[in-house]
Amino acid sequence: MNRIMAIGHDVVDVGAFGDQLRQPGSRLSELFSARERRQACSLASVKNDGQALHLAVRWAGKESVLKAWCAALGHRPVPYGIDDFPWPQVEIIDDSLGRPGVYLTKELNDLLLSSLGICGDVHWLISLSHDGSVASAVVLLGLDDPGFSDS
């Protein structure tokens, strides 16, 4: 990442989020990809805590992605709002070492690049945290420089 374009941050009340997940007829879990749900379930089992905690922190990550995208647009039109954003197309997934990452479907990534007027690629950095009843995420959206190598 050569240039930071925008930052996004979000905080989620884990208890309220868990209550929403458990409400009869709630479609909140459908806003996560199957991989996110599987990973949250696995982490909850390993850490002996609730799946809602692991989904809540990923929800904070997803909201942070949308906020960073909107911030990067500046005064340009925003392609999505909170009610029509394709939430399952943004995955907040840990890699094999437990490091969280942001992964967009190709379709959504192409729309992101187009909306920002970028002929290249962007890079996401994310930090997730939870303590007690609060889950938080910070996301940086950066522009990749094709001439830059981090090796």
Task: Describe what you observe in this structure.
Its EC number is 2.7.8.7. The protein is α+β, with helices and mostly antiparallel strands and 151 residues long. It has one domain: 4'-phosphopantetheinyl transferase domain (Ribosomal Protein L22, Chain A). It has four helices and five strands. The strands form two sheets. The chain has a three-stranded antiparallel β-sheet with strand order 1-5-4. Strands 2-3 form a two-stranded antiparallel sheet. A hairpin with a 2-residue loop joins strand 4 and strand 5. The two termini are 12 Å apart.
CATH class: Alpha Beta
Name given to the CATH architecture = Alpha-Beta Complex
Structural class estimated from helices and strands: alpha+beta
Largest sheet: 3 strands, antiparallel
Residue share in helices? 25-40%
Q: What strand order characterises the main sheet?
A: 1-5-4
How many H/I helical runs? 4
End-to-end separation: 12 Å
- What Rg is obtained from the alpha carbons, in whole angstroms? 16 Å
Q: Tell me, rounded to a whole number, the average pLDDT.
A: 92
Pattern of helices and strands: EHHHEEHEE
What low-confidence regions span 5 or more consecutive residues with pLDDT below 50?
A: none
CATH fold-level assignment: Ribosomal Protein L22, Chain A
Number of strands: 5
Range of strand content: 25-35%
Count of all domains = 1
Enzyme class: transferase
EC number: 2.7.8.7
Protein name: 4'-phosphopantetheinyl transferase family protein
InterPro entries: 4-PPantetheinyl_Trfase_dom, 4-PPantetheinyl_Trfase_dom_sf, Ppantetheine-prot_Trfase_dom
